[in-house]
Amino acid sequence: MTYPKAPWTLQGYALQTCQLLDAKKVRPFIPPQFELVCVLPGKTVGGIYVSHYGTGSVLEYSELIVIAGLVSYSGQIGGWVSHIYVDNADSVAGGRNIWGLPKELAEFTWEKQNFANTEYKNRLLVRQQERTLCQFSYNPPNFELQVPLSANAFSTKSDSILLFKSHFESHMSLIATQLQVPTESPFASLGLDHPWLTLCWNQLRLVVGSPEAVGLREPVVSQL
């Protein structure tokens, strides 16, 4: 498998949910080296990011990223990616070898049409073999605002704690959506299926930067 070196430039569109998550539920998904950032007592911020990167991208693929919460390490704050799925084997290899992200393969079905017995026009189904990871039902945006943004994320690779920055420009909008995360999904226990808002990113241009080692992982001491 071959994959491009960092940074990666990706172009396409995406959906992103945002919501408060129970700190006790997400803590098991986050390594102990990180401090969980709570914006309210017992609550952190997380969500799901799904995207399709097409023409103009270093690789063309769809992606599902689960942000289990905001974390802090060495004075920096960023999101913790607990689960990540793509439909391109080269993206799996690049994500694991460059950024230390736990990428896995999955199937993405994007449908844009009117569905009977529903108020939503579009749908995305993400599956891994016979298991459904999540399903989005959503409507296209009515109004868009062009914005530049940046975000930090943490990962771990071998003995290192990594920090990497993402910069993107896009037409952003709020959209109506319904998210379903069945109990069979590996991230169902995070409680992500009731987002308080969903953003749509159209004409997205995303640059994922090279990771920077900001610390060392503490060795796990077995309790005998």
Automatic annotation (TrEMBL):
It holds the Pfam family ADC. GO terms for molecular function: lyase activity. PANTHER family: PROTEIN NEOXANTHIN-DEFICIENT 1, PTHR35467. This is Acetoacetate decarboxylase.
